[in-house]
Design a protein that fits this description.
Blueprint (H helix, E strand, L loop, with lengths): L8 H5 L1 H11 L7 H15 L6 H9 L10
């Protein structure tokens, strides 16, 4: 049995963006989804990373446990 679950190519192609997004979105200041998405999109484009749609990121966040956001 493999140690990790298989990852679709769509998810793995956006892993760089998702790392940026999650780091920004989980800040203590609790920025909005939209502000994080636009900020990370600019950074990702500058770095040459693939940028997913907002709907894709929202779906991915729906799969994350509640602890992905910093508690107050």
């Amino acid at each position: 049995m493999p140690d990790s679950l298989p990852v679709s190519s769509e998810v793995s192609s956006f892993s760089g963006f998702m790392e940026l997004f999650l780091a920004d979105y989980s800040r203590i200041s609790r920025p909005t989804f939209q502000s994080c998405f636009f900020r990370c999109r600019k950074i990702a484009e500058f770095r040459g990373l693939a940028v997913p749609s907002r709907d894709f990121v929202r779906r991915e966040l729906g799969l994350l446990p509640d602890q992905s956001r910093v508690a107050e």
